[in-house]
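// run 5 | inverse folding | seed 20
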């Protein structure tokens, strides 16, 4: 659903680095039962997200790319900044044992890891809702730059059912989507962990 301090990515997004005290007593949301990481790999476009500090420089065209590499998932998050440049950050994710691959721990700045939970996933792997167990972070991701409104509404309803503040989500413009696997022409210095 993610770039150098942001995350141009979709997906991937997705990191709750510190527990949120107000949410600490709530039960975490359930994830999907399992994820086929080979099918999940590839490019995802961020359709909407809960605002976060590490994506503040991203104004549009946020996307994520996931690549399987043995026991880990390589994460490349990109977005376009206000000056039209592409911000990019690379990280890696590892699967949480016994989670059916639905829970991952992602790092862009080792040894700091954040949670990336797959909360909803289309049968054809065309759209997803990912987030953190404390509900501070969430992303709606899709394989295409736009998502039909009915599908977006369904994912937002799922997020609401899971206890996320859906009124706080912001849409991500996909005005000049970056080609899948494109190298960033300009890479900003990383300053914080990023995800989708």
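// decoded
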């Amino acid at each position: 659903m993610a770039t150098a301090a942001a995350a141009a990515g979709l997906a991937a997004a997705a990191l709750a680095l510190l527990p949120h005290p107000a949410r600490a007593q709530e039960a975490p949301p359930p994830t999907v039962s399992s994820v086929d990481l080979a099918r999940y790999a590839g490019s995802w476009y961020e359709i909407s997200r809960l605002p976060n500090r590490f994506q503040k420089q991203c104004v549009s065209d946020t996307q994520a790319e996931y690549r399987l590499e043995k026991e880990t998932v390589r994460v490349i998050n990109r977005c376009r900044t206000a000056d039209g440049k592409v911000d990019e950050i690379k990280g890696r994710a590892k699967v949480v044992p016994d989670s059916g691959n639905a829970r991952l721990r992602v790092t862009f700045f080792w040894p700091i890891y954040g949670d990336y939970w797959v909360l909803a996933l289309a049968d054809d792997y065309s759209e997803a809702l990912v987030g953190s167990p404390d509900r501070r972070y969430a992303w709606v991701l899709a394989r295409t730059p736009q998502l039909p409104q009915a599908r977006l509404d369904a994912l937002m309803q799922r997020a609401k059912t899971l206890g996320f503040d859906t009124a706080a989500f912001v849409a991500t413009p996909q005005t000049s989507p970056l080609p899948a696997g494109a190298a960033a022409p300009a890479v900003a210095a990383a300053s914080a962990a990023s995800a989708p």
